[in-house]
């Protein structure tokens, strides 16, 4: 396959993730031609004079290991530029610093608890109001758009109810009515392997690199990717000014994780599909865009290459859910997702506990919800362990 816009050969997604060299002239070159970009563990760089500096002067401002992973991220995210920062929340923080007091944000009403917390903080401390709306219906956004709107923030699929937003349609509506507003997509659930929001109309994409990109729960990282130079300059300014760029060692770990993203995600997703089918066959209410019964199955399939490896389900009873979670052995009780190990959690008590209970109730977030993040273990072991916990907790009887 040849990309006619550049001379670079465009490979298929799994190849793009693992293939990188500097033969196209992009990015820093290691002088020894190391097969893996070394960790440039240095804070500062020598200059030949006070007025002449090389490509780098200080690692807060730039570092070859960071440039290497950022160039690779830009390629796999279909971005003009990408930036590696020290967590997913930092990525969002850097983006929201473009919003001035008095301007507004529009975001979903089902979204990661930490995102909700940061947006609430902006409202209290910076006079930046967020309207939380149902992003599953694109037209819902129209009455909230105004000359004050600066960011429209979408999670799709959402964490934890796996709801889908129509990125192309919402981007079209926003760009038509509010030329100053930017559509921002949190693509953490999907990873760039499954979905590329910049190709679908979004202006900015961010990720918690702590999840699928790194894949092993051994680092915290965040990524911001953009397709416009002026926005890239603003993002870079904030990262340098506040000193939140990812450290060289973490950049190296992130790069190492990205190389195996396709194989991990293919395996995790295939198992997640089986597990979602299993739970649905036992009459649980399952939230997963890989099920044909998901109300936005087709929309999600149009925008992405797959449903991913996170799903949630309801038992109908909080105490039962609690028992079930504790009775699993192979599924670790942890927040986070995207790791090679399978995890189980109760979002209302864990990842989304920072959203006040009254707000969770208002947004119809089921307190008994269990979230499963499927890893790379043998799916039969995962199913057996789940079956054991379902039976021992009495949940299976209830659902049947
Ligand atoms: C969807 C989503 N976005 C962003 C974040 C924030 O990422 P991090 O924990 O790397 O700050 C998380 C989880 O923490 C998340 O689930
Ligand atoms: N105590 C943490 C919880 C992190 S949740 C991590 C992840 N996004 C998930 O959805 O599991 C906090 O309050 O931020």
Automatic annotation (TrEMBL):
Example of a GO cellular component annotation carried by this entry: cytoplasm
Tree of life domain: Eukaryota
InterPro entries documented for this protein: Cys/Met-Metab_PyrdxlP-dep_enz, Cys_b_lyase_euk, Cys_met_metab_PP, PyrdxlP-dep_Trfase, PyrdxlP-dep_Trfase_major, PyrdxlP-dep_Trfase_small
Family: Belongs to the trans-sulfuration enzymes family.
EC class: lyase
Species: Mortierella polycephala
Entry cofactors: pyridoxal 5'-phosphate
UniProt KW keywords: Amino-acid biosynthesis, Lyase, Methionine biosynthesis, Pyridoxal phosphate
Known EC number: 4.4.1.13
Residues modified as N6-(pyridoxal phosphate)lysine: 211
Catalytic activity: an S-substituted L-cysteine + H2O = a thiol + pyruvate + NH4(+); L,L-cystathionine + H2O = L-homocysteine + pyruvate + NH4(+)
Pathway linked to the protein: Amino-acid biosynthesis; L-methionine biosynthesis via de novo pathway; L-homocysteine from L-cystathionine: step 1/1
Protein name: Cystathionine beta-lyase
Coiled-coil region: none
Gene Ontology terms describing biological process: 'de novo' L-methionine biosynthetic process; transsulfuration
Recorded GO MF terms: cysteine-S-conjugate beta-lyase activity; pyridoxal phosphate binding
